[in-house]
Amino acid sequence: MDSALFQENERTAAVTDERKIAHLGPFQTERGFEFSGIQIAYETWGQPNDARDNAILVCHALSGDAHAIGWWSRLIGPGKAIDTEKYFVICSNVLGGCQGSTGPSSLAEDGQPFGSRFPIISINDMVDAQALLLDQLQIQTLHAVAGGSMGGMQALAWSVRYADRVRKCFVTASGAAHSAMQIGFNEVGRQAIMRDPKWRGGDYPLNDPPRDGLAVARMLGHITFLSEDAFGQKFARRLQGKEAFDYHFGVEFEVESYLNYQGDKFTNRFDANSLLVLTRALDYFELKDLSPARAEFLFASFTSDWLYPPHQSETLHLMAKNSGRNSDHILIDLPYGHDAFLLDGEVQGSRLREFLG
Predict the structure, then answer these.
(1) Model pLDDT, residue 11
(2) Is the pTM above the cut of 0.90?
(3) Residues 64, 278: Cα–Cα separation, whole Å
(4) Domains of the chain listed by start with CATH number
(5) Catalytic residue among 65, 196, 305, 339
(6) Does residue 5 surpass a pLDDT of 50?
C-alpha cells in the first residue's frame, strides 16, 4: 500500500505566518442570532487578474483551517490543478471554527469566551460570512469554488445561494445531506465531549477544556477517515512493543496506540465547542435540489470511502443533471478511505485541471 496513506496530514496544522484577519462587521445568522461583529481568518495565494474573475475559493473540511496549500498540497500550488500562478486562491477558516475566525472560544462583548452562548449555525451561515469576505477582497465572480467533505457542502451552498457568482463547482467526498449513520457518528463524538465533566455545559476555562472527551471524539472520527483495508495494512493485529498480551485494559495493540496518539494530538489545536457547533451544522445541512445553480459541476468519490460513500456523489451528479447543469462524476478506485480526497493528487488533479481550464 502507498505510504502516503499514513503520513501526517497537514490539514490539521494551524498556520499563522500568512494568516490575515478580516473584520466583517455585524452579522445575523439564519436563525436570527445577531453578532455585533465577526472576524474571519483567511489566506490567499496568487494574484487577481485585471478583471478580478480568476479567483478560486477553497472550502475546508471539519477540522481544517485556512492554510489550504498545506492540507491540500497535492492539488493546490504552482503548476498544480489549482494553480497558484494562474488563479487567485482564497481559503478561510469557517465561522464557528477555532483557527482565527469567530467561534465559541472567541471573546464576546463582555470579554469572556462565548462558550455556551455561541449560537447554532449553519453551512449557509459559513458561506454568507465567506461572501462578505469576498466583498471585502473585491471579488464578485468566482472562477470556481472547491471543497471536500464539509467543504463540499459549503461549495454546494455557494452554487445555489450565490448562483450568479460561481462559474464552476468542484465537490469531492461529500453529499447532499447526512444519512442516519453519518449523524450517528457525529452524535457519538458530541456525547463524548458533553459527558466529560470538564465540558461544564460549554462554559469551560480555555486553559482547562474537556480534553478527554474531545480526544475520544477525534479517535472515532479518525476511524471513519480511513478504511478497513488501510487499517489492516498498517496495523493488522500487531501488538504495541511486546510479544504477548498483558491482559489488561491498557494499550495492547498498535492500532490502539495510534488512535490514542491521534486523539491526544487533536486536543492541542482544536476547541471542543467548535466540534459541537460544526458537526451540528453538518447534520442540519440538506440540499434538496440544484435548480437555482448556474455553475458547471464536477463530483468525485472514492470506492473505499465509507463515511461519504460514492452513491452520495452520484446522487449529487444526478441532481445537477436533472437541474439542467453540465455535470460529471468520477469514481476513483483507491484504498485510502475518506482521506483519499486529501491524499490523491493524480486522478483528481488531472480531472480537476481539465475542469478548471
Answers:
(1) 42
(2) yes
(3) 11
(4) 3-178+287-356 (3.40.50.1820), 182-278 (1.10.1740.110)
(5) 305
(6) no
Q: Write out the three cell numbers for 141.
A: 465572480
Residue 107 C-alpha cell reads as 471573546
Rounded to whole angstroms, how far apart are CA atoms 161 and 131? 10
Query: How far is 347 from 22, CA to CA, in rounded Å?
Result: 35
User: 149 catalytic, yes or no?
Assistant: yes
Burial of 180 (0-12, 13-18, 19+ CB in 10 A): exposed
Q: Quickly count: other Cβ atoms within 10 Å of residue 208's Cβ.
A: 9
CA atoms within 13 A on the CB side of 141: 12
Question: Which of these is catalytic: 92, 327, 338, 339?
Answer: 338
> What does each C-alpha distance from 88 to 76, 131, 280 come to in angstroms?
11, 16, 31
E strands along 149-306, which residues?
A: 166-172, 296-302
Residue tagged active-site, from 149, 174, 301, 313: 149
Q: With 70 as the cut, is the pLDDT of residue 125 above it?
A: yes
Q: Cell 485541471 sits at which residue?
A: 353
Query: Mind listing the pLDDT tens digit for each residue in 42-81?
Result: 999 999 999 999 999 999 999 999 999 999 999 999 999 9
pLDDT in tens, 96-121: 999 999 999 999 999 999 999 999 99
Residue 317 grid cell: 451528479
305 flagged as catalytic = yes
Judge contact between 22 and 139, C-beta under 8 A: no
DSSP H or E stretch at residue 277: helix 272-284
Please, are residues 4 and 343 in contact by the beta-carbon 8 Å criterion? yes
pLDDT band of 176, cuts 50, 70, 90: very high
What the block records as the C-alpha cell of 229 is 483495508
> And the C-alpha cell for 41?
481568518
Give residue-wise pLDDT tens across range 284-315: 999 999 999 999 999 999 999 999 999 999 99
Is 203 among the catalytic positions? no
Whole-number Cα distances in Å, 4 to 8, 177, 339, 350: 9, 30, 11, 18
